[in-house]
């Protein structure tokens, strides 16, 4: 191949060209960096501008919302006043009359005059005739009071009856209170009940309304249970529910001891023993299910709890009076409040809407199943201070609690064994390094007993079983006679003497180990029999009591 020669001039030219290219690349890179900086700067300016635009739009929206709220609140208030202004006057009048009755500083004539004007101005509103009835009641005009009450009852029987039940309670008219309360309760449905009803049921059951000597309200409340019984499977589900209660609530009180554990290990009949004895102790031992029921049932309400029940009843009176007259009024009042909040929050409409939605959610009270509500009252540990609710629930559900108890406590009684088996079947723990080449035998023993009457005989049986196992183990260690003779001839008798000495040592070790194991097993047998005697006594003492299979829940509401 021919040699190519390149001149110095050409090389210099090439070098300059490469330098120029490098400088151009550097220049381009610098230019690109400048462009990137300008782009980043423009992007930052655009983001800042975007924020300014968003803030400007937000400010404009808030100003618009504020201006709209200022205008709309006038319109809404005018509509509220035009359509429901007299309704608010009725509510204010009712609260005023109640306060006046408490203070005794307003004349009966003034009360009567105001109430009649409100009746004329508020047709169809249930509370207006109630105000009139209360005014005539204060004036002792029974005829006119009854006429007004009939109008109120026709307009809204549930609210009217509840209103006067609470008013009568406040003024100590017990008989009238119970009649009104019975009217209110009789309109409730057990499968679809307002949660507020429970406040009155608990107050009634715990004497806040006084002594219902004729039991007219109690009869109505218990009739709800009859209503629920018509639901297919209701009785069965209640029994199952309360059987589970007895089982789960009494687990920590079940009979347990070291001897009981030994009995469980030595007897195949332990499961039958435990099934019945466990139920007895889980219910009747200290802290068991029975204690938990009666602790709630007979608990005394503290003055604070009584005060809380009374306050709950009075709070429901105020709620009842202050409630808006219809869904239309409620919607208008919410709209008025929304615009008022927008003004207060300087146009922040989203915040105002959130508060209105929260208020509407708080008003909603989902209907409850009466039986489920009672169950929750008893078992809900998140409200341990609700003694009134738990007492009421136990009274009302006592039929199911009693039936469930009878089924629960007797379910395994017939299977309780009169005679039980006792056994051991385990390998004695010996020195495995010393006897690793021998198959150390297990100790097997079994017997039956009723109440430990044959304990001595069983102990002898255990000792015999261990002696037999020890003899078998020693026999495996002892060399055969032929081997002893051969070794004696070969070693001139020295080996035989050594082997005889080793055999005696090993025999003594085996005997000692089996003796210790035997003593331990005899002690375990004592413990198992002792446990059997204890549980037999427990069972016999229990079932010898009259009514052992029945749970007595005394009293009523």
Topology readout:
Elements: H1 8-103, H2 108-121, H3 127-138, H4 142-155, H5 157-170, H6 174-186, H7 197-205, H8 216-229, H9 234-249, H10 258-266, H11 270-284, H12 289-297, H13 303-322, H14 327-344, H15 349-363, H16 370-379, H17 387-410, E1 420-427, E2 442-449, H18 455-477, H19 481-490, H20 494-543
Antiparallel strand pairs: 1-2
Helix pairs in contact: 1-2, 1-3, 1-14, 2-3, 3-4, 4-5, 5-6, 5-13, 6-8, 7-13, 7-17, 9-17, 10-20, 11-20, 14-15, 16-17, 18-20, 19-20
Give a description of the structure:
This protein has 557 residues and is mainly α. Helix content is 73%, strand content 3%. The protein has helices at 8-103, 108-121, 127-138, 142-155, 157-170, 174-186, 197-205, 216-229, 234-249, 258-266, 270-284, 289-297, 303-322, 327-344, 349-363, 370-379, 387-410, 455-477, 481-490, 494-543; strands at 420-427, 442-449. It has a two-stranded antiparallel sheet with strand order 1-2. It is flat, with a radius of gyration of 46 Å.
